[in-house]
Specification:
Order of helices and strands: HHHHHEEEEEEEHHHHHHHHHHHHH
Radius of gyration: 25 Å
Number of helices: 18
CATH architecture of one domain: Sandwich
Strand content: 5-15%
CATH class of one domain: Mainly Beta
Number of strands: 7
CATH topology of one domain: Immunoglobulin-like
Largest sheet: 4 strands, mixed
Structural class: alpha+beta
Shape: globular
Helix content: 55-70%
Distance between the termini: 28 Å
Length: 404
Amino acid sequence: MHLAFQIEIDNPNELDEIYDNITYAKSNSINRMLCNYLGEETFQKGLRIYLKRFQYNNAVTADLWEALSEASGQDIETLMSTWTKQIGYPLVSVSQKIDGKNRILRMSQKRFLADGTTDEKNLLWQIPITISVSSEPESIKERVLLKGFQQNVTINDVDPKDWIKLNVGTTGFYRVLYSHDMLHALLPDFATKKIPVLDRFGIANDMFALVKSGRESAKQFLSLLKSSSNEDDYTVWSSLDSGISELSNVLSHYDPVIRSEFNKFIIKILKPVADRLGWEAKPNEDSQIALLRALILGRLGRCDHEETIKTAREKFLEHFTNKTELHPDLRLTIYGMMGRHYGKEGFQQLKEIYETAGFGEIERNCIVAMPQTSDTELLKEVFEYCIQNVMLLNHPELPVILIY
C-alpha cells in the first residue's frame, strides 16, 4: 500500500510513475475518513479557507492541514501525517466489558498485513474511530481518536443488550477485529438488515480479509454467511462471494466429500436469495439487482445445484437452437454453467457461438466460459483451440484462459 499523497517529485515526468490508481484510491479513502470524523460542515469550511487562501498561489500538503485545523480546532497535521507519511493501514482490535449502562472498550492497533505476518516497524497511526450502537444504528454515538497502541474508551448510556460497532458507514481506512462476543452480538441484526448496508458491507469485507490473514477462523465467516439469507444488496454479496470463492478453491484440493458438504451449506443459504430474485428481470429493475441475480445464480451453478443448472441448460438450448437473446447480465452466468457442467458438448456449442456471433461481448463471454470445465483432457483441447485460433491469440481475454 502506497503513501497517500505527500511524495517529493523532482521532475514532472515522474508524475505518471508515482501517482497510480492505488495512490489516488488511498487519498480518496483518507479524505473521506477525515471528512466523516470532522463532520461534513467543518470539513467544507476548512476547504473553503484553503481554496480562498491559495487560489492564486502554490500550496503544499501542510497548508491543507492548517486550514482544516483552523476550521476544526484540532491538530489535523499531526493526525494526518501518520496516514500520508506511512505505508499501509491499521487493524483495530476491540473487546468490551459491560458495566451497567457503561461500555468499556479495549482497543489496540497494529499494521494490517494481508499475509498474516507481523510488521516489525511498529507503525502507529492516529485513527479516527466512529462508534454506533444498536439503538441508533445509523448514528454516530461516539467519536474517538486512537493515538496509542492500546487505549480504553468508556461509552456511556448504552443498554447492556446493545451491540457496539466501530467504523460507522465503513468510512474509516482501517479494518476491525471484534472479540467473538461483540461479533456474535452483531449477527442477528446483520441477518435482519437492521445494521445499515454500508456497515454490513464493512463487516463482510473485514471478515474474510481477517480469515485470509489468519487472524480469524473460517468458522466465524461461515457464521456470518448463515446470517445472510435475507441479504439483498449486491455490494455485500459481492464481498461475501469473494470469500466463498476462496474457500471453495482451497477445499477443491481436499476430500471431495468435504467440498460437497460445503457446497450444500452454500446452496442452503443462497437458494432463498435466488428464489426471491428469479431468473427474469423485472420492469425498471435496478442494475444492482441484475448484477446480484447473476452473482447468486452463478455461485449456485458452481456449487453444483441441479435445479439451477437444469434451468440454465434449458435457457441456453433455446438460445443456441432458436437464436433467442439471453439477458446480457445472465449470459456469462449461463455460458459458464455450460462450460463447467456439459463437457465436450458444452465446449463445442460455445465454440460455435464464438465463431458465428460477430459480437465482441458474446465472444468474451464464450472465452471466459470455455475453460471452466473440470475435465483436464478437455481443458487441453480448449487451450489448443485458443493457441490455434488466430483471432483468439490477439484477444484481450486470453489471460483468463491461461489462468484456468
